[in-house]
Amino acid sequence: MIHSSHIMFMGRLIILAGWIAFAIVACDSSENPIDDDDNSSFTYTGTASVSQGEGTVTNSNIYEAGSRVAPLGTIMDQDGESWEMPAAVNFTNSNFPFAPDLYNPDGISYVTASEAEAAYDVVDIVEIDADGEVITAYLFADNYFELYINGVPVGKDAIPFTQFNSHIVKFRVSNPYTIAMKLVDWEESIGVGTESAMGYNHHAGDGGVVAVFKDAEGNTVVTTDESWKAQTFYTAPIKDLSCVSENGTSRYSSNCDTSDENDASEFYALHWEVPAEWMNEDFDDSNWPDASTYSNEVIGVDNKASYTNYTDIFDNPTNDALFIWSTNVILDNEVIVRYKVE
Predict the structure, then answer these.
(1) What distance in Å separates the CA atoms of residue 52 and residue 237, rounded to the nearest whole number?
(2) What is the pLDDT of residues 234-259, one digit of tens each?
(3) Residue among 171, 70, 60 at smallest CA distance from 126
(4) Do β-strands 229-238 and 220-223 pair in parallel, antiparallel, or remain unpaired?
(5) Phi/psi of residue 160, each to 5°?
(6) b/e string for 296-334 if b means 16 or more Cβ within 10 A?
(7) What contacts 202, CB < 8 A, 6 or more positions away?
(8) pLDDT on residue 98
């Protein structure tokens, strides 16, 4: 005969065993696809696709004259989707015009902006509206830009990475019109957003763009500032996914570690799909965040002739243009900015 206390004891063992089995199954669940061994990443709940480690180089250097290699490549995220790195760009697309030089160590460098204006070839003026006004844009980007007006390609950066250069672009357009730029902070290590610097293999560089647009009479139409829209589509390197957050369409990584490293195998990257019509005049960017602004000192341009030769344009006392980017000028590597001129 089995004593009732033994029955109760065995029942408790069965219940306990059931809870243990449930806990094992729960811990083995793949509900969170990002969960490294030391549990430092926690659960990632954002809207991005996530990749880890370096990707595959498909073109080792698209600009042989550069002081750094400018590779292209791909990386697979943890859902098996492939992403172009550091961004899908038109640098090798002959149908997308290169912007004429303002200052180019490998091309033409003008002493002043006025000299570049006087030398501008009228055949390089991009016509958007035949009865429009000629607008002149001056641009300095760290590292690379592609400029569209009402969805029409107007000019791309002549140097994707380094050395640092700047451009003058003219186009004919009628009001209102929309300025849209794809901006890329290039990388040497595909898929982790880093370059070799400061004695380390993986240093997270920074971005930034400044631009001034003038009408045919030389009056400033618009400069880059916080009234522009700016959205990020690629953020890296991320060492711990718990450092990133989102609020509506704003994507934040200001709490993330940006220290230099020699090993990128554990680095994460965040990828968001770029809307197909982002460059068009009628694209709705109303819910995008406003651009963040940065000082010359933060961007580090005071020793770059491609900028300092033209401070009468970029740092005009009455129409000072500001460097803009998304919320993180270091970790956000692909950014789209837009502005509508009324």
Answers:
(1) 9
(2) 999 999 999 999 999 999 999 999 99
(3) 171
(4) unpaired
(5) -70, -30
(6) beebebeebebbebbeebbbeeeeebbbbbbbbbbbbbb
(7) 189, 192, 194, 195, 196, 237, 260, 261, 262, 263, 264, 267
(8) 98
Confidence of residue 42 (pLDDT cuts 50, 70, 90): low
Nearest 5°: the CA angle 330, 205, 258 is 55
**Could you identify the residue written with the tokens 């290699």?**
69
> Across-strand partners of 301?
none
Chain CA centroid to CA 317, Å: 29
d(CA 18, CA 23) in angstroms, rounded, equals: 9
Q: In which band, very low, low, confident or very high, does the pLDDT at 21 lie, cut at 50, 70 and 90? A: very low
Token match 């490293």: residue? 261
Contact of 92 with 290, CB cutoff 8 Å = no
Q: Which two tokens stand for residue 302?
A: 């005071």
| Amino acid identity, position 136 | T
Q: Which stretches of the chain are DSSP H helices? A: 4-27, 113-119, 296-299, 305-308, 311-314
Which residues, other chains included, contact 313 with Cβ-Cβ below 8 Å and sequence gap of 6+? Answer: 113, 138, 212, 321
The predicted model gives 11-39 an average pLDDT of 37
